[in-house]
Design goal:
This protein has 153 residues and is an all-alpha fold. It has six helices and no strands. Helix 1 runs parallel beside helix 5, helix 3 packs antiparallel against helix 4 and helix 4 runs antiparallel to helix 5. The radius of gyration is 19 Å and the shape is elongated.
Amino acid sequence: MFDDSGELFAQETAIFTIIYFLFYIATIVMFCISLYRAWEVLQSTTARTSSGLAVGLLFVPVFNVYWVFQALWGWSKDYQSFTSYQEKGTMPYVNKQIFLAHCILLPMLAIPIINNVIAYFIVPTTLIVIFQMSKATNYIIENNLVDTTDVNS
């Protein structure tokens, strides 16, 4: 008599891994779309880089450790510069320190042993970064604060 529970466990693990991988890819795609859109909104104002470079250079190995600071923290600083020209009371707030913390935590995921602990902090900072970036971008588009003909299409 032989037990098939090990084989069943392997199948369940494989299915869970595939589902997790699909959600992971979808998250990366949505994050890249949000980041591209956020940079596209600032193109006619205070942008330090183009939308395509902001997203594309994140996929260059090793260089992306530096570039994440330009793409995320740089966007938050450029957004703050943009808001200094607008009515401050109405613009959504973007916390530059959260963006900086997220940029510091991301490369730390590659360090063995501490990466399991860092993973617990990266999820909330990722959600906050995406939420603040999307809220600010949507506010700019909805209130026609810049020319957004390329962003809406």
